[in-house]
TrEMBL record:
Domain Lipase, residue spans: 3-288
Family: Belongs to the AB hydrolase superfamily. Lipase family.
Name of this protein: Lipase domain-containing protein
Any GO BP annotation: lipid catabolic process
Record-level Gene Ontology MF annotations: lipase activity; serine hydrolase activity
Gene Ontology cellular component list: extracellular space
Domain of life assignment: Eukaryota
Length: 467
């Protein structure tokens, strides 16, 4: 097995240059410059530098800034058997460490300027390298591999001590017995769990004609990924989109994804972090004044993030990044209303910038609503409303369930929903200063205390609750 290091820069964005630190002229005659930040990509099991995602990520990195982008080719050691590939990660980690340490010694590379991005086994390979590089700047782990690593001591797997910043995206954290390939345990300074870090939207093959379309558009290699490891590969796609995307991925520290969806950790007072390429610009990662460089970042002791989980939701296709909206419905309880009703809710939001139509507020089947209480859910959409919501249209459909006799509503019950007001928040961006919500709108019915929404009907609410 021979590990190769292939350099791309803005001067050679498509034709790679082979670097060999043991042959000095390959470095001197290349476009490598120690004054630039260095980004290294390490692929995982049964992968090669020829994989679509490697070239896509490399292209986005080259476009994003003046970087040395180095692809680590260990294809000879990443092929089956998995047990052998796992063993090879230690050797490849040693070679990556030797590569960086030699560039430091002979070519003035500062390890703080090096950022290693590893997928699956490549994430642990980056960890093994980081153990042997003093002052390595950053490692991004993209769904680090679970088998032989989950629950193991820190010296066996990726962990926060491997670099000054270790940020991790978990997308396939089901047990390996349920065909999950990624780790579920936190292993970095910042651990992100999009869509709970287990099942990714768009990866359920029963949802639609995903595979045939992929076969036609992107070839057999990409189709096989969809079939075998769609959730596992999603971490790559999210990171790649984050490099030059305008929509920020904001993760919220929360006890669970269910708490997050219920809007209980919606504001950054609970702790926020930026997922993906720009994770190092997360507030709370502060400059180390004691070192020579101002670019070094690490989590401050006041906001220790190790072991915390950051949750967010994404879309099922490009663009994966979505704007998050918290919708709270305050239910009225007038005389004649049933104590509870069950059914389906959809909402349309209108602001000065545009309209979002028909967002599903009951995505996991019907919901039971108790009059006199409130119902809150976090939903996502690609569109940024860009300001206060001026109008909301709420649609209601009653659901009769034969397994719930009290829900059967034929002659003698009231299937209407009574709504006092609707509150809409857009998720804020994390900032160093005071909490500053992009918008928070309370909407009511004109000249009435509440709206009476019939089955399969709708009602409009406006931002005129000041009366």
């Amino acid at each position: 097995m021979v590990t190769m290091f292939i350099l791309y820069t803005k001067k050679n964005p498509t034709e790679g240059q082979l670097l060999n630190v043991n042959v000095n002229k390959t470095i001197v005659k290349s476009n490598f410059s120690p004054s630039r930040p260095t980004k290294m990509i390490i692929h995982g099991f049964i992968d090669t530098p020829l994989s679509n995602w490697v070239s896509e990520m490399k292209d986005e990195l080259v476009r994003a800034g003046d970087f040395n982008v180095v692809i680590v080719d260990w294809a000879g050691g990443s092929l089956p058997l998995y047990t052998q590939a796992t063993a090879n990660t230690r050797l490849v980690g040693l070679e990556v460490a030797h590569f960086i340490n030699t560039l430091q010694k002979d070519h003035e590379l500062n390890p703080q300027d090096v950022h290693i991005i590893g997928h699956s086994l490549g994430a642990h390979t980056a960890g093994y390298a980081g153990e042997r590089i003093e002052g390595l700047g950053r490692i991004t782990g993209l769904d680090p591999a679970e088998p032989y690593f989950q629950g193991m001591p820190t010296h066996v797997r990726l962990d926060p001590s491997d670099a000054q910043l270790v940020d991790v995206i978990h997308t396939d954290g089901k047990s390996i017995f349920l065909l999950g390939y990624g780790m579920s345990q936190p292993v970095g300074h910042l651990d992100f769990y999009p869509n709970n870090g287990k099942e990714q939207p768009g990866c359920d093959l029963t949802e639609g004609p995903l595979v045939p379309l992929t076969l036609v558009k992107q070839g057999l290699e990409e189709a096989s990924r969809v079939l075998v490891a769609c959730n596992h590969v999603r971490a790559i796609k999210l990171f790649t989109e984050s490099i030059n995307g305008k929509c920020p991925y904001i993760g919220h520290q929360c006890p669970s994804y269910q708490h997050f969806l219920a809007g209980k950790c919606f504001h950054c007072g609970h702790g926020c972090a930026i997922m993906g390429f720009h994770a190092d610009s997360t507030p709370g990662l502060i400059s180390n004044k004691n070192n020579q460089t101002e670019n070094e970042v690490y989590p401050s002791e006041e906001h220790d993030t190790i072991g915390a989980k950051y949750y967010l939701s994404t879309g099922k296709e490009l663009p994966f990044c979505q704007r998050h909206y918290k919708v709270s419905i305050q239910l009225a309880n007038p005389k004649g209303a049933e104590s509870w009703v069950q059914g389906f809710l959809k909402v349309t939001l209108l602001s000065d910038r545009g309209v979002i139509r028909g967002m599903d507020l009951t995505p996991n089947n019907y919901v039971k609503l108790e009059h006199g209480t409130s119902y809150t859910i976090v939903v996502t959409h690609p569109m940024d409303m860009g300001g206060k919501v001026r109008k909301v249209e709420l649609s209601w459909e009653y659901d009769m369930n034969v397994l719930e006799p009290r829900s059967l509503c034929i002659l003698w019950c009231n299937d209407r929903l009574y709504v006092k007001s609707v509150l809409v928040d857009q998720m804020e961006l994390p900032s160093r200063g005071k909490r500053n919500v992009d918008f928070s709108s309370k909407l009511c019915t004109p000249k009435r205390e509440f709206a009476e929404i019939p089955n399969r009907g709708s009602a409009s609410f406006y931002d005129n609750c000041s009366r």
